[in-house]
Design goal:
By secondary structure, the protein is of the alpha+beta class. It folds into three domains: 7-40 and 381-596, Sandwich (Immunoglobulin-like); 55-191, Cupredoxins -  blue copper proteins (Immunoglobulin-like); 200-364, Immunoglobulin-like (Sandwich), CATH 2.60.40.420. Strands 12-11-10-14-19-16-17 form a seven-stranded mixed β-sheet, with no helix packed on it. Strand 1 (55-66) and strand 2 (74-85) form a beta hairpin. The structure holds copper (II) ion (CU). Copper (II) ion binds at residues 405, 515, 580, 582, 585, 590.
Length: 597
């Protein structure tokens, strides 16, 4: 049986108003998962006469066409920026790319961004990695419609780092990013300036994305259940919006500012000659000192600052940056149940296979090259004793069902903070991200209850929910066995994955997959990772690729893994989202908010 609803069609209905009919009668949690949960609308922020910007930018999101493959141009969405005030290098276009221009800011600058949209759907810009007030964070409640203006005003509080701007509208983030809305933000500060790292033509932004094109060179973005469950994967790698990316270099050191801008694809970066990857920074800026790794994992939303030294290499030599092979980030159940369909869905580029990302060619011999500094940065290492909750970490519980990816047992709902999600402002918090079931094998009644509780939030009866779901055939390709379009079928599914119960442990383990968890607001530090009894051959293929030091805002949590982090919540009250940066998961409701109060 395969009756999965065509979700893009449903989105279409939702947008045209027929969504009222389609959504009528659905339980609220299902509406939330199906992208129909209600999001209130707040008035766009206006410019403040008391704010005197050092830098002012007009930013526009609009439909556009651009030549990516040979032949017909591709329809995309694009950010376009115009510098109104400030240093000339603030806005740098990437020629021939759908990506937004690179925005360069200095720590301490007062920044105003006048954001407008020409899209025929709501959107809002979020500054991934930046520590800004809640009103400036691009929360979906502030999404604007075509022709509207949203004015952002904030001071750059971040240390030197690479960050991202991308849309964050309710349930439309994945599709808008996929169609082109994303750009890099580079923040500089004095500490970094003093190091004399490679800059200008020797500092190369590298945005890695994957896309699927149809025969007419148009982007394919399907929204089948399986795409949402595992995330959407393309079969073509684009670097800075270009296919088959080649970089001509001189025989000297370069600084590669790498960003995974893919919706769901996780990469394992390695040089093809097996020389180590030298990492000098991560999401939140420079490490204390360089780290040499055989390979580095890079999940959606994560960044890497890489020292790439080609000195001593002859003109004509080539080096390929690859994603090398690994396993264990996708659910075993999906792999087994989907079988051929699952592999088809990843097309010619299965997740975890070995494939090239970009080719570097040495085309010029030069005699001098900067030396890699031994010491890069100094910063405070958070201790458990810095936190206000040393014995009670704030939980971020990942739970996975056949059609639901949840945090803390609940799908996203606006302003719905649980007691554990209420954070006193100006505190430093110990937090623990873990799989609420499966993976570690640790599963008990308490976990099932936690799960059940979350799913039953709202007033609907579980049986009624089950009936709706079975009747709608939501499981699509995932549905198997004796579940049918009957109450029994729906009920059975509730028992399987949604409500806890007997089948939970096995299902949980089988559904478990890797999630890049992103927390808005200030960067955090990773205190520990533990995999427990579940350490497996799969884990061995990725475990040497994590950077433990430095500041992070997105952390890849493998199946069965528990990650403890320490995160400050300083300066700003309000709602700050945290979510899976697998953007299909995010849109599916794998997102929650911290209410900083
Ligand atoms: Cu996820």
């Amino acid at each position: 049986m395969h009756k999965s609803i065509n979700l893009s069609r449903r989105r279409f209905f939702a947008k045209t108003g027929a969504g009222l009919l389609v959504g009528a009668g659905l339980p609220s949690w299902l509406q939330a998962m199906e992208g129909m949960s209600e999001m209130p609308k707040k008035a766009p922020n206006k410019a403040s006469p008391n704010f005197h910007p050092d830098v002012e930018i007009d930013l526009l999101s609009k439909p556009s066409t651009i030549s990516i493959l040979s032949g017909q141009p591709t329809q995309v969405f694009q950010y376009v920026a115009k510098l109104v005030k400030g240093p000339a290098n603030t806005v740098t276009e990437i020629p021939g790319s759908y990506l937004g221009p690179i925005l360069r800011f200095e720590k301490g600058q007062k920044i105003r961004i006048n954001f407008r949209s020409e899209l025929n759907e709501p959107t809002i810009a979020h500054w991934h990695g930046l520590h800004v007030p809640a009103l400036m964070d691009g929360h979906p409640v502030y999404a604007i419609d075509k022709g509207q203006l949203y004015v952002y005003e904030f001071e750059m509080l971040n240390r030197a780092s690479m960050n991202i701007y991308h849309p964050h509208p309710h349930n439309l983030t994945a599709s808008q990013v996929y169609h082109g809305l994303a750009g890099a933000i580079l923040v500089n500060d004095q500490e970094e300036q003093k190091l004399g790292l490679p800059d200008g033509e020797y500092e190369i932004p590298i945005v890695i994305q994957d896309r699927q094109f149809d025969d007419n060179n148009q982007l394919i973005y399907a929204s089948h259940m399986r795409d949402r469950m595992m995330g959407f994967y393309g079969d073509k790698i684009l670097i800075n919006g270009r296919p088959d990316f080649n970089l001509d270099v001189a025989s000297r050191a370069y600084r590669f500012r790498i960003l995974n801008g893919s919706n769901a694809r996780i990469y394992k970066l390695a040089w093809d000659d097996n020389s180590p990857i030298t990492v000098i920074g991560t999401d939140g800026g420079l490490l204390e000192s360089p780290v040499h790794k055989p390979y580095v994992m890079l999940a959606p939303g994560e960044r890497l600052d890489v020292w790439a030294d080609f000195s001593g290499r002859n003109v004509g030599s080539q080096l390929v940056l690859r994603s090398s092979s690994f396993s264990g980030v996708l659910p075993k159940m999906a792999e087994r149940m989907m079988g051929h369909a699952g592999r088809m869905h990843q097309m010619g580029l299965p997740v975890g296979s070995d494939y090239p990302l970009l080719t570097v060619k040495v085309t010029r011999q030069v005699s001098d090259s900067p030396a890699l500094p031994n010491s890069l940065s100094t910063y405070h290492h958070y201790q458990i004793s810095d936190t206000v909750n040393p014995n009670k970490p704030v939980p971020i519980a990942i739970s996975e069902g056949p059609m639901s990816m949840l945090l803390n047992g609940r799908p996203y709902a606006y302003n719905d903070a649980l007691p554990s999600e209420r954070i006193p402002v100006n505190t430093i918090q110990l937090m623990e991200i873990f799989h609420a079931h499966g993976g570690s094998g640790g599963h008990g009644d308490d976990k099932s209850k936690e799960q059940g509780q979350g799913m039953q939030h709202g007033n609907e009866k579980p049986q009624a929910e089950g009936h709706k779901m079975g009747g709608m055939g939501m499981m699509g390709g995932m549905n198997h066995g004796n579940s049918d379009s009957t109450e029994g079928g729906g009920h059975k599914m509730g028992g399987m994955g949604m409500m806890g119960g007997e089948g939970m442990a096995g299902m949980g383990t089988m559904m478990s997959m890797a999630h890049p968890i992103h927390l808005h607001g200030q960067s955090f530090q990773i205190l520990s990772r533990s995999i427990g009894a579940a350490e497996s051959e799969d884990y061995a293929t990725v475990k040497d690729g994590f950077i433990e030091g430095g500041f992070k805002d997105t952390v890849l949590v493998m199946p069965g893994e528990r990650v403890k982090i320490i995160k400050p919540f300083q300066d700003f009250k309000g709602l700050f989202m945290y979510h899976c940066h697998n953007l299909e998961h995010e849109d599916m409701g794998m997102m929650r908010e911290f209410s900083v109060e």
